[in-house]
Design a protein that fits this description.
This protein has 6 helices and 15 strands. By secondary structure, it is an alpha/beta fold. A hairpin with a 6-residue loop joins strand 6 and strand 7. It binds 1-O-pyrophosphono-5-O-phosphono-alpha-D-ribofuranose and uracil.
Length: 209
């Protein structure tokens, strides 16, 4: 069974509260998502491997540690997942970025694939899939399945707000994929929106409604 990591750091919770507020505009929403992504990134990357590197300080030579950042890929689920890339990239600037385009059919709520462009060596990398909303879990599960078909074996899912339904679906279809979330909300409404949630993440990031 995959692990569920709830990032309840006070700064993450504080920023999330502002994002949830319907009076928060796109500019602030984007900036806060960026900041939270960086903060969550600390936890998502907490156990990534370090390598020895020989360096020279002004005093002497030493064997120091460096992150094998070349082994990481960030894969946002378009559109809303894009809002979490910059924060992670600030943390790991050499990470490669792939893109998976999925949107939910408004009636069936099933994800529809429209784009996929991934680094050639994605199968050799730790992949962090980003999407602010884990609702029914359909989009996350499909994106993870697409990555597994490309040979990825080391995948983590980073979202902002989730619900038990979506968590259960990911854990049952992809028990090897750990989930990182800042909040587990109550339930989905009749339109498969998270309650209380924060509304439509893509629209709030890009100002499309
Ligand atoms: C939203 C969100 C997730 C998906 C979550 O995307 O960003 O990708 O819904 O729902 P699910 O867990 O039920 O699949 P949306 O389809 O609205 O597309 P957008 O990001 O382009 O706005
Ligand atoms: N997608 C969103 O953007 N918000 C939700 O609450 C559910 C799916």
């Amino acid at each position: 069974m995959s692990l569920l990591h709830v990032i309840n750091h006070p700064m993450v919770q504080h920023k999330l509260t502002i994002m949830r507020d319907k009076n928060t505009g796109s500019k602030d929403f984007r900036e806060l998502l960026n900041e939270i992504s960086l903060l969550m990134g600390y936890e998502v990357t907490r156990d990534i491997p370090l390598e020895d590197v020989e360096i020279e300080t002004p005093i002497c030579k030493m064997t120091a540690k460096e992150v094998s950042g070349r082994k990481l890929a960030i894969v946002p689920i378009l559109r809303a997942g894009l809002g979490m890339v910059e924060g992670l990239h600030t943390l790991v600037p050499v990470a490669r970025v792939g893109h998976i385009g999925l949107y939910r059919n408004e009636e069936t709520h099933e994800p529809v694939e429209y784009y996929c462009k991934l680094p050639e060596d994605i199968h050799d990398r730790l992949v962090i899939v980003t999407d602010p909303m884990l609702a029914t879990g359909g989009s996350a599960c499909d994106a993870i399945t697409m990555l597994k078909r490309k040979g990825c074996r080391n995948i983590r899912l980073m979202c902002l707000v989730s619900v038990p339904e979506g968590i259960r679906k990911v854990q049952s279809e992809h028990p090897d994929v750990d989930i990182y979330t800042a909040a587990v909300d109550d339930h989905l409404n009749e339109n498969a929106y998270i309650v209380p949630g924060l509304g439509d993440a893509g629209d709030r990031i890009f100002g499309t409604k």
